[in-house]
Write a structure and sequence with these properties.
The complex is a heterodimer of chains A (189) and B (259). Chain A folds into 2 domains: 110 residues, Orthogonal Bundle (Rna Polymerase Sigma Factor, Chain: A); 54 residues, Orthogonal Bundle (Arc Repressor Mutant, subunit A), CATH 1.10.10. Chain A contains 9 helices and no strands. In chain A, helix 4 packs across helix 5 and helix 8 packs across helix 9. The longest helix of chain A is centred in the first third of the chain and has 23 residues. The relative contact order of chain A is 0.12. Helix content of chain B is 27%, strand content 25%. In chain B, strands 1, 2, 3, 4, 5, 6, 7, 8, 9 and 10 form a 10-stranded antiparallel sheet that branches. The longest helix of chain B has 18 residues. Chain B is flat and about 75 Å long. Classes of the chains: A mainly alpha (189), B alpha+beta (259). Chains A and B meet through helix 1, helix 2, helix 3, helix 6 and helix 7 of A and helix 1, helix 3, helix 4, helix 6 and helix 7 of B.
Chain lengths: 189, 259
């Protein structure tokens, strides 16, 4: 399928935090397959993954007052909450039955050499795309050229007609900011 | 030992080659190499090809349960994953695709709302929006009601440094809307100006000046309350500048009146 973040916009971050139910439906449309797949990968069966997905969206909506669209994108926040829900479900299950858990997690996509599996890569990508939107210009264009077109600092400077020093400092600050946003959703409790 | 400057660390993280002395340093310095690896994780994540990754969709019962548990509006019952996009997507701007009885948008005409980007106000507004969570979608229904009387109301809360309490009501009669606003005391050093502000935190309309006690101000027909649900009273200095001063006394979000 296409990257799930493609139809998500900044405005929806704001609408969600303001309590617009249409924005919740759109969030579900854009991100529930990702949340469900992450849960399925960790929990191993559709029933538990369904419960976790349901709980993730319900928590996100009920606690939306704690989400500040100025501070980060909704996908990062929603995925962080979902990860907590999955993690709670995992530890509850492990207490009940360690062996069942081990049996069920076999057969799902495994981590690559960097310790990040495919679905987690999608989640990272979704978070990054949304956070790139938040950076504003010219940072967004600079980072897109660096990431997607693989241009050097010097080439970006020529392409956008910006001083090399400006390009350098934007890239440095933006990379650091994006790193901390990725950590936010990746931070397991 | 002279470590790499942050700019060079970023260049290395993006797999750009550095000058020979820097490359040599990086090869022998664990601290700099660790910083490069850390930022390179972002680059790898951004460049990874995720287009072929298969994601599983949850079953329709999952949305059903969310809808039931949160008591969402009935029109949102169809599973968003399979619902027709033209009805599930209110952002298209296509009024013809809006289901009957839902959001009715009045396009602002004439001079547009002012834009305003002062950071302090934006920060303060976002708090107001979050406090008013839940009020926004309700306010979307306002444009559809025609019966006289109170169609929406807001409890107003003082901002830092102020103690005034207040309330605001939107009254509708013969298609004309009025904002009636009551404050317990006047705390402005200059004069009090009343605004309707958008949740995008960028745009606002001035409705006029408020005296002591209760005042009524006309809401222009072209102002869509769904788009400008935040009632704000500012302290305006007598400086002849028509823009919002950035100093707000009291604020609240409009919600559809109940009963």
């Amino acid at each position: 399928m296409t990257p799930p973040s493609s139809e998500w916009t900044r405005r929806l971050d704001v609408d969600f935090s303001a309590g617009d139910e249409q924005a919740l439906a759109q969030a579900y449309r854009s991100f529930s397959p990702l949340v469900f797949s992450l849960a399925l990968r960790s929990l191993g069966d559709r029933s538990a993954a369904s419960d976790a997905t349901q709980e993730g969206f319900i928590r996100a909506w009920r606690f939306r007052a704690g989400y500040n669209p100025e501070a980060g994108s909704l996908p990062a926040w929603l995925l962080g909450i979902s990860r907590n829900v999955v993690s709670d479900a995992q530890s509850a299950r492990q207490k009940r039955n360690r062996i069942v858990h081990l049996a069920h997690t076999a057969g799902y996509p495994r981590a690559d050499e960097n310790g990040v599996d495919e679905i987690e890569s999608v989640a990272n990508r979704v978070v990054l795309d949304a956070e790139l939107e938040l950076l504003g210009e010219p940072q967004r264009s600079i980072l897109r050229l660096a990431f997607c077109e693989d241009l050097t600092h010097q080439q970006i400077s020529s392409r956008l007609d910006l001083p090399l020093g400006t390009v350098k400092s934007h890239i440095r600050r933006s990379l650091t900011a994006l790193r901390s946003r990725l950590e936010t959703w990746n931070a397991a409790p | 030992m002279q470590h790499l400057d942050p700019g060079s660390i970023s260049m290395a993280a993006l797999n750009e080659s550095l000058d020979a002395p820097s490359e040599e340093h990086l090869a022998g310095c664990e601290r700099c190499a660790a910083e490069v690896r850390e930022l390179n994780l972002v680059v790898v994540a951004a460049q990874g090809d995720t287009s072929r990754t298969h994601l599983e969709s949850p079953d329709p019962q999952v949305w059903e349960a969310i809808h039931r548990e949160l008591g969402l509006q009935p029109s949102l019952l169809p599973d968003p994953l399979t619902a027709d996009r033209s009805t599930a997507d209110p952002w298209s701007g296509d009024a013809a695709a809006t289901p009957a009885g839902q959001l009715v948008t009045f396009t602002p005409r004439g001079p547009g709302p002012r834009t305003f980007t002062t950071k302090s106000l934006v920060a303060a507004v976002s708090i107001g929006v979050l406090t008013g969570a839940g009020a926004f979608w309700a306010a979307q229904m306002l444009g559809t009601k025609a019966s006289p009387g109170v169609v929406a109301q807001a409890d107003l809360a003082p901002l830092d440094g102020y103690t005034a309490q207040g309330s605001a009501e939107v009254l509708s009669a013969d298609g004309a809307r009025t904002l009636r606003i009551t404050l317990t005391e006047e705390q402005a050093d200059g004069y009090q100006e009343v605004w309707l502000i958008a949740p995008d935190l960028q745009q606002m309309y001035s409705l006029g000046v408020l005296g002591e006690g209760t005042g009524s101000l006309a809401i222009p027909d072209s102002v869509d309350l769904a788009a400008f649900p935040i009632v704000d009273v500012s302290d305006e200095p007598l400086d002849g500048d028509p823009a919002h001063s950035g100093v707000s006394v009291i604020r609240g979000s409009l919600a559809a009146a109940t009963g």
